[in-house]
Amino acid sequence: MKQRSVFGLIAIGAVALVLIGCAIFYWLLPRSTTNLATNGTMSEPNAAIFIPKQAPVMVSMLINPERLPASSGKGVVSLLQNSVFTNSGINYQKDIQPWLGEEITLAVTTPDIDRDDENGLQPGYLMALATAQPAKSQEFVDLLFSQRVLAGNQLVVEEYEGVKLFYDHPEPTQSQNQLKQVENLPPLASALVGDSFVLFANDPQVLRNAVNNVQAPDVNLLSSDKYQKAIQELPKEPVLATAFINFPTVAQWQGLQLVDPVFDSQMVALKFSNKGLLAQNIILAASDKLLISTPLTTPTAALQWIPDTAGLVLTGKDLSNLGNTAAAQFWMQLTNTISGSRGGKTSQWVESLAYMQNSPKIDLSGDILSWIKGEYALGLLPNKGKKAPDWILVVDKADGQAGISRLDGIAAASGLSINSFSLDQQKISAWTQIQAATNSQNTQKDKSFNVDAQIRGLHTTLGDYEIFASSIAAMDKILATQGNNFTQNPYFQNGLQIMSDSNQGYAYFDWSTGEAMLKQKLPIIQLFSALGKPFVSKLLPSGNFARVSLIFSSEGSNTEFLKASLFLQLES
Which of 70, 221, 241, 322 could serve as 19's disulfide partner, Cβ 3.0–4.6 Å? Predict the structure, then answer.
């Protein structure tokens, strides 16, 4: 029978979501609450010394839950008790809270403890709890294993390299009733290391390896060049939490295929501002081959023609080499790994731009993106009553003129007509499909005809920009943007105030209005949404928000890593 463990996959996910949960609960509290940005004490986890270089994942919470605001603390404790310590015989509030220090680290140390392919993968899980009172924490470990012995387990106490290890396993001579009682207690091993940490693991070999990692520092995570490079790039001020992910071993652990990876590891640091939660990412390349792009220092002026109702907005400069940018390569590696596909193309994640979606003559990268070398802004707008969202593409006038002739040729070859009309006294050019239709109620003799013109795309010139849109309704919103365009979106402005001025552009996503739009084009969004719902329901019982928004920005000034920020805002 497959061995159960107190530290399963659910525990890793729960602790990671605990970190997000802290931010969510904090954001819902009154603004008079003490700012958590000033409460942290560390910028990196001390428990990294126990973790091997090739560990799949390490997640650390760098603040004691008791120092969180009341609602946040209760949410964190609930998840720790119900997810991490479930069926372990451990009561967090009674057994751990009295001595817990300022760090909780949970790691998958190896995809397979015994490295034996014949018996399948048996991951190693390690949890390190910083102790503020070593004597009390030792009393807890002694009492915990005494209780497990009374439940029918056999206790083993082992001295290993000066550290006392405790672990247990069922007695082979026990009765069926005793075995059934013991079955509810997953395998557990523990040790107090010095006066700093209490370690828990699902196997004593995981503890032995942790001790070895301390005594042979060239094998622990702190000695990893990738880890140190990521730490150096993160802010030095205290943060709420960090995570370090090793892509090749995560793929092995989860049974995924990582084909020709561009990136091999990632460091994430979470911290608060008075406006939301900022996740700063250092995504390290497998080799020094990342494309360096000229950074922007201010948002593009093209945003002035995007309505503030847009659910998804992308803005930056130069789309001609989009597929080779570091951010695009990371996205394609992520989606291809999860989906098991090697056919990642730029068109798979921006295909809503293809205004003639049913035409095989359109090559999105060659016919649209290749000629956009200046500023651009792309917006997707909810379209009530229709499945597909409306889109708006704003480009520099010079780029627009270069692209129009190409698109006109494609439209003509596709059987479309090029027509002009006025909308609010603004000259509009449109690609239309014209069909004749008869009135079926009339006789052959009195047959009447109607002309049905379907717009496949249209464009116009406004100021220094050429603007393309999918429908007359979308173009009408563009013409009415004065006073309510996207540059005045308060949530976008909040992100600009906290994120780096030097960047490769921004991606803004309003989950409240954009989730349904993206699910149609990006099935991975549906996957993330489904996975997140059980945890969100625990963290946020009410589940009601007027707005949930995300802003993503990347910096591409280094060939060795992608530096990116993700800013989360909530409004109840």
Answer: 241
Strands 417-423, 426-438: pairing kind: antiparallel
Residue at 530 is within a domain:
no
Environment class of 316 (CB within 10 Å of its CB; exposed 0-12, middle 13-18, buried 19+): buried
Residue 227 host element (H or E) = helix 225-233
DSSP conformational letter for 265: E
Q: Left if phi > 0, otherwise alpha if psi is -120 to 50, otherwise beta: which for 120? A: left
What φ, ψ does residue 87 adopt, rounded to 5°?
Answer: 60, 20
Quick one: which H or E segment has residue 249?
Answer: helix 247-254
Q: CB of 552 within 8 A of CB of 507?
A: yes
Range of the domain at 203: 9-244
SS3 56: coil
pLDDT per residue as tens digits for the range 170-204: 555 444 454 444 455 668 899 999 899 999 998 99
Each residue of 447-505: pLDDT tens digit? 666 767 788 888 999 999 999 988 899 999 999 887 788 988 888 888 888 887 778 88
Task: Please count the structural domains in the chain.
Answer: 2
Asked if residues 507 and 551 have their Cβ atoms less than 8 Å apart, the reply is: yes
Burial class of 215 by CB neighbour count within 10 A (0 to 12, 13 to 18, 19+):
exposed
Residue bearing tokens 């920005």 = 553
**Distance between CA 161 and CA 508 in Å, rounded?**
52
Angle between helices 523-539 and 70-79 (to 10 degrees): 110
Shared-domain flag, residues 209 and 92: yes
